[in-house]
Amino acid sequence: MGVSCAKMMKDKILQQSIALFEKNGFSETSIQDIVNMLGVTKGTFYYYFTSKEQLLMQIHLQYIDNILEQQRRIIDHSDKSWKEKLFDVVYMLIHQIESHGASARIFFRELINVKGDFLNEILAKRDQFRFNFQYLIEQGIANGEFRDDLPADMMTFAVLGACNWSYMWFKPEGPVPDNEVACIFVEVFLNGMKK
Amino acid sequence: MGVSCAKMMKDKILQQSIALFEKNGFSETSIQDIVNMLGVTKGTFYYYFTSKEQLLMQIHLQYIDNILEQQRRIIDHSDKSWKEKLFDVVYMLIHQIESHGASARIFFRELINVKGDFLNEILAKRDQFRFNFQYLIEQGIANGEFRDDLPADMMTFAVLGACNWSYMWFKPEGPVPDNEVACIFVEVFLNGMKK
Amino acid sequence: MGVSCAKMMKDKILQQSIALFEKNGFSETSIQDIVNMLGVTKGTFYYYFTSKEQLLMQIHLQYIDNILEQQRRIIDHSDKSWKEKLFDVVYMLIHQIESHGASARIFFRELINVKGDFLNEILAKRDQFRFNFQYLIEQGIANGEFRDDLPADMMTFAVLGACNWSYMWFKPEGPVPDNEVACIFVEVFLNGMKK
Amino acid sequence: MGVSCAKMMKDKILQQSIALFEKNGFSETSIQDIVNMLGVTKGTFYYYFTSKEQLLMQIHLQYIDNILEQQRRIIDHSDKSWKEKLFDVVYMLIHQIESHGASARIFFRELINVKGDFLNEILAKRDQFRFNFQYLIEQGIANGEFRDDLPADMMTFAVLGACNWSYMWFKPEGPVPDNEVACIFVEVFLNGMKK
DNA sequence: AATGAATGAGATTTCATTCAT
DNA sequence: TATGAATGAAATCTCATTCAT
C-alpha cells in the first residue's frame, strides 16, 4: 500500500465529503454519511481529519487559494490590456464553477459554518480577491480603458456579483458553455445592454 | 390577552428566529436558543409553529411573495419605459436587502435547508421571479430599448446575480445608500464600463 | 406531577450517580449506565444537569460544604475545651464516612476529575478545612492543652490523614463503630501509643 | 539497538506513563498521549505492553513490592527495638513518597482502575503490608513497648493513615524534609500531642 | 396560551486495540 | 523493533419534538 494509499484514502474522503456537502449541506451531512459511502468507519475519518470543521476549512482554502493564484497570474500578465484581463478573470471564475461545481457551491454557500480563526483567514483571502479585482478595474480606469465617472468598488461588486452568483444556476451540461457565458457577461459589463 | 397577544407572541418568535438564523445559521440555531431569548419555553414555540422547517419556510415565503408582488406591480405599470422598470426592479431588490437584511440573508443562504414540497414551492416562485425579470428584458428588446444580439436569459442572470449578491456586502450603515447602488448598477448594465 | 416530582427525579439521578461513581469510578461510569439504572433516557439526565463534570462538582461541593459547616459549629462552640473540640471534629469526620460512605469515597478519590474553576473552588474549601483544623490545634497550644514543641501544621497533617484515610477501610457494618474509632484515634493522638 | 535498547524504550514508556497518569489521571490519559510525548507510535506501546491496564498494574506492583520488601527487611532486623522499627517503616513510607511521588500518587489514587485478578493480587499485597505493620505493633505491645489497652488494628489504621495520606500534601521541595516529617509523626504517635 | 418533563434518535468525537508490513 | 492504517465500540452531549397539565 504505502504512501499512495494514504493519499488515496484521504482524498477519497475529501471527494466524498464535497459531494455530500454539496448535495445535502454541511450541517445536514454527518461523518457517518461520509464514511458509509466509502465503506470505512468513523475512526478512519478522524485518522485523516481532526474535525468536520477542519475538513470544511480545507475545502474553502483549496478553492480560494486556487482562484487567488489564478487571478494573480492573470493580473500580472504583462502583454494584455485591462479589458482582456477582465475577461480572463471572469472566465476563470465561471470556468471554476463549471469544472469544480461542488466545491464552488460549498464555497459560496457554507461560509456560515466556518468559525473562529479559520473564518478570519478565509474572509481575509476573500477580501483579497475582491481588492485585486478592484485594482484591475482601477488600473483600467487610470489607463483610460474604463469609465472614470463610476466608483471602482461598486463596479467591482456588480461584476463579481454576477460571476459569483452563477454558482446558483450554471450547469456544465447546460446549453451555454462557460466561455460563452464569460463572453456575454463581459460584453454586457463593457458595453451595456442598451441598444 | 386575546388575539392581538397571540399575534404578538407569534411575531416575536418569528423576528427572534430571523435574527438568530441570520447570525448563526439555520442549522446552528436551536429552538432552545430562540425561546431562551424570549424567556418562554419550547412548548410555546410548538404552539405557534408545527416545526422548525415550517418556520424557515415561512421566512422564505414571506420574502419571495413580497418581492414577487412588488415586481409584478412594477412590470404592470403602464406609463414607464422598460429601462425605467429595470431600474425599479433593481432598486426594489437592493432596497429589500437594506430594509430586511436578516431575512434577505436567510433567503439567499438557507435554501438548502428547505426540503420536500416546501422546496418545490419556493423554487417555483424563485423561478417565476427570474422569468418575470427575463420577460421585462425581452419586452425591452422587442421594444428596441435593449440590444437584440445577446440572449435575454444570460442578461437576466447577469443583472439578477449582481443584485442578489449584494446580500453579501450591502450594509444600511455603509457609505453608499441603496438607491445610489441601484443607479450605479443600472448605469453599468445599460451603458457598460467602457470609456 | 409538579414540584416534588422534579426534585425527585433530580435527586434520584444524583443518588444513582453517587452509587455508581463509588462502585466503578467516575471515569468508568457513563451517563448511559446511570440512566439505565433509573429506566430513563440520557435526555433526562441533561435536563437536570449540564454535564457529567457539573454533577461530580455538585457531589464534591455538597460534601465539603457539609463538613465545613459542621467544623465551624464545633470550633465556635464556647463551652468546650480544645481537646473536646478535637474529638468532636475527628468524630464528625469519621461519622460522615459512616453515614455518607459513597459520597466520601468519591470526595477523597475523584478529585482528579474536577477541572478548571470548579477545581479551584473545591481546593480552596479543602484548604479552608485544614486551616480551621490547624487553628483548633494552635488554640490548644496557646491554651496549654497541647504541646508547644511540635509544629501545628504537621500535627494537623497527622490527625487529618488518619481520619481521612479511614474512607479506605471504615465500614458501617464493621466490628468497631464510628464513635469508638474516634475515641481510639483521639486517645492515640493525645496520649500516644507508648506504654 | 539490541536488548539494552529494548529495555530503554520500555522504561521510557513506563516513566512517561507514570508522569502522565499522575498529572492527568489514568482514565484521562490515552495511549496516544503517552506515545506522542515519546515521538513513537501506538504500535510501539503494544509491542512492550499488552494493555493499558497491564501497565497500570505494573506500576502498582512495582510500588507495593518495593515497600513490602523494605518493610520486611526493617521488621526482620534483629538489633532494633519495635519503636525504632516503627520509625523506620514510617520514614520509609514517607521517603518513598518523596523519592517516587508520581508513582505514589498513582498507587494511592488509581486503585479503582485496577480490575479483576490484577486487583485481587494488589489488594492481597496491600493487606499484607497492613498485617505486617499490625504485627510490628503487636510485637511492641507484647514486648511492653506499646500500650496494651488499645486495639492493635486501630492503632495500625491511625498510623498508616497518617503516613499514606501524606501522598496528598508532601512535596520534596517543601519546607520540611521527609525524615523530619517522620520524626514528628512518630513523636506524635508515641507520646501524643497533649502537654 | 403556555409549561415542564421526558424521549429517542443521532451527532461528533475518542480510544484501546489489531495487524500487515 | 516499530509503523501506519483501520476498526468498532462506546462516550458525551444535542435537539426537534411530544404531551399531560
From TrEMBL, chains A, B, C, D:
Keywords (A to Z) from UniProt: DNA-binding
PROSITE patterns associated with the record: HTH_TETR_1 (PS01081), HTH_TETR_2 (PS50977)
The HTH tetR-type domain, residue ranges: 7-67
Database matches in InterPro entries: DNA-bd_HTH_TetR-type_CS, Homeodomain-like_sf, HTH-type_Tx_Regulator, HTH_TetR, KstR2_TetR_C, Tet_transcr_reg_TetR-rel_C_sf
Pfam family, any one: TetR_N
Example GO molecular function: DNA binding
DNA-binding region(s), residue ranges: 30-49
Superkingdom of the organism of origin: Bacteria
Record-linked PANTHER family: ACREF/ENVCD OPERON REPRESSOR-RELATED, ACREF_ENVCD OPERON REPRESSOR-RELATED
Name the UniProt record assigns to this protein: TetR family transcriptional regulator
